[in-house]
């Protein structure tokens, strides 16, 4: 079993329980990985803040995550992320690399004027984490709308997909894992 690290980035102390819960849930999908939450007080993302947009550049943060040691490193933040070509992103990953990043900012039901729903929020969090980690294992976007690797351009597409891989992506992932792990 390989170890993956989850790095909380600019999160509230109360939010850490969600990250610990995520670390316990992800091995159900990535059964060859264990997940450890590693707090790094020295990890700052202030350099990635774009004052004009009021958001953080996900590419710049991902570049910093790539420098962290570990088989896989998943950064989890509560700040709003973007890439220059898009208004926002739920997450970003290094295709075939060791680093992935998700933001929970737009995963909160309250962001869309919906009532607080912890179960819905956590399901969205898992889906985005699995999706971005999938990219680190060379998985591309899937055309099947129910597959976790389907591209989500809106929260409604995130809600429509499952937290698991479709049979095609699962088979592809298993083939990749045999050569990596």
- Major pleated sheet: 5 strands, mixed
SSE class: alpha/beta
Beta-strand segment tally = 9
Numbering strands along the chain, what is their spatial order in the largest sheet? 2-1-5-9-8
User: At the first level of CATH, what is the class?
Assistant: Alpha Beta
Number of helices: 5
Could you spell the SSE succession in H and E letters?
EHEEEHEEEEEHHH
The averaged pLDDT comes out at 95
Which spans have pLDDT < 50 for at least 5 consecutive residues? Answer: none
Can you tell me the number of structural domains? Answer: 1
What is the CATH superfamily label?
Answer: Collagenase (Catalytic Domain)
Instruction: Give the oligomeric state.
Output: single chain
- What share of residues are in beta strands? 15-25%
* Approximate helicity band: 25-40%
- According to CATH, the fold-level topology is Collagenase (Catalytic Domain)
Tell me the overall shape: globular
How far apart, in Å, are the first and last alpha carbons? 8 Å
- Return Rg in Å: 15 Å
